[in-house]
Amino acid sequence: MNANNDTKALKSGIWYILEIFTTKGILFFTIPIFARLMSHDEFGLYSNYESLLRIFSVFVTLNLSASFISARFDFAESFEKYVLSLLSLSTVSSLTWLVIINFFSDWFISVTDLNIKYLNIIIIYLLFFSVIDIFIARERFIFRYKTLVLTNLAIESGKAILSVILTICMSNKLDGRILGTLYPTVMAGVIIFYKLKWKVRETNFKYWHYALPICLPYIPHLLSLTVLNSIDKLMITKICGPGYNALYSLAYSCGIVVTLLVISLNNAFSPWLGEQMKNENVAAVRTVASRYLLLFAFLASGFMLIAPELLLIMGGESYNEAVYVIPPVALGCVFQFVYTMYVNIEQFKRKTVGMALASILAAAINFVLNIAFIPRYGYIAAAYTTAVSYLCLMMIHMFLVFKIGYLKIYDITNTWVILFVMAIYAVLINYLYSLYLIRYSMILMYILVFVYLYMKNKEHILALFGNRIL
Q1: Tens digits of per-residue pLDDT, 304-335?
Q2: What is the pTM of this model?
Q3: Helices (H), 75-172
Q4: Cβ distance 279 to 325 under 8 Å?
Q5: Which of 11, 176, 245, 255 could form a disulfide with 166 if both were Cys (CB 3.0 to 4.6 A apart)?
Q6: How far apart are CA 83 and CA 143, in angstroms?
C-alpha cells in the first residue's frame, strides 16, 4: 500500500469530517431557530419546498459528478476538459427545465402546490448548485481538500447566516428563508464559473456521451432513495396523524449527525478506493475498509448513547418519547454506509443500471413494511422498517458487486460481524434510556475509550494538523 496515498486520503478524510460537521452543524442547529421564527404554516411550506427541491435535483443536476470516480482515470490527461464539458451539460439541463417549468406552469403548480415563483427559484438554485457540486467533486478527486473545505464552509455558513437574518427582517418569513439559501449559492456559482474560465466553445460532446450512460441510471436510483427517505412521514401522517409525524420527523432529523458521517467518510474513501482499484491493490482496500467501518460503527454507537440529550436540545421535553426512533435510524445509517462502499465499486466499473433497480426494490419493500407494521405498532415501527429496507438495499448491492467479480475486495465476514453487533446494540440501547446510572456510566466508558484511542494515535493526528496539513 502506498504510504503517501494513505496519508493523503487520511488527511482529506479529517478535513472532510471537520468541514461537514462544521457547515452542516450550523444548519442543524438553526432548525430550532427557524421553528421559533416561522409560523407552523410557513415552516410546513418550507418543508414542502425542500422536499420538492430534492426531487427536482434528481432530474435537473443529473448527478454528473458521480462519473468522476472512473473519468478521473479514463481521461487522466484531459480531466479538466471533462469537468468543463460537464459544466456545459449541467447548464443545458437546468435551462431546459426552466423552460419546461414555465411552459407547463399550470400543471406544475397544481401538482406541487407551489407558486411559480418558488418553482423558478428551485431551478435557478439548482443551476448554480450543479456548478458548485461539479467543482467540489473535482477538488475531491484530485485531493485538493483545503480548497474544497474552504469553499463549502463559506457557502454553507453564508446560507445559514443569511437565512436567519432575512427570516428575521422580512415580513414573509418563507421568502426570507428561501432567498437566504439562494443568494450565496448563486454568488458562489458565478465565482466558480469565472475561476474555471468556462467557455461554451470548449465543450466536447464525447464527454457527454461518456457521462450520461453512467449518470442517467441514477435518476430512478436517487428518486427511489428520495421516496425511501420521505414515504415514512407521509404514511405516518395518514395512518397515525400529523402530531405523531412531528415526533418522528424531529427524531429522524437528529439522525443527520450519523448521515453526515456517511457522507464525510465516503468522500474521503471513494477517491482513494478508485486509485487502489486501478492499481489492483485489493489487500490495501480490505484493510482500510474494515477500519473505516469499525470507526463508523464506533461513532454511531456513541450517537445512540446520547440520543435523549440530543432530542431534548432539538425539541424539548414534549418530544422525549421519540427517542426510540433514533437507534433504528442510526442502524439504518450503518447499513447505508456499507452499501455506499459497494456502490463506489459499481461506479468505478460503470455498472450503474443495477443501482436503480436496487433502490426501486428497497423503496417498494419499505412501502409494504410500513403498510404492515405502522397501523399495528405505531410511528416508531417506521424507523425499523426503514432500517430493514436499507439492509435489503445493502444486500442487493453486495450481490451486484459479486456479479461483477469484486465481492472479495472487502472483508465480508468482518462486515457481517460488525453489523450483527450493531443490530443487537441498537435493540438493547432502548432499554437503557430509562436506566440513567447505567447509561451515564456507559457514556463515561465511551469517552475514556475515545480519549485512549486519541492518545494512542496522538502523534499521528497532531502531525496531520500540523504544518504538513496546513
Answers
A1: 999 888 888 776 677 788 889 899 989 998 99
A2: 0.68
A3: 79-103, 105-112, 116-141, 145-169
A4: no
A5: 176
A6: 15
